[in-house]
# Entry
Amino acid sequence: MLLPIETEAGLILPGHPFFDEYLYGTLPPDWRDYAYHNPDFAFVARAGSGMLEAVTEAEMVKYVEGGEYDQWLEESGQDDDNYG
# Structure
């Protein structure tokens, strides 16, 4: 039995050809409020889920220098050698 990849209402589910692209390219719902209160912010893709999260500049530095960015690169199969 095949599981549905799209609901009747148009909600795409895992297995849909565009699911990952949409999930990883969609900004978090609360980002505008976060940006209003934290003018120096960035979006990071969390290791384990790949979901974008708005963080402060200090949290972004910790994300990069603490190894979570490298972990996310490994999980996603991407290589950052193109950027440095």
Q: What stands out?
A: Residues 19-76 form one domain.
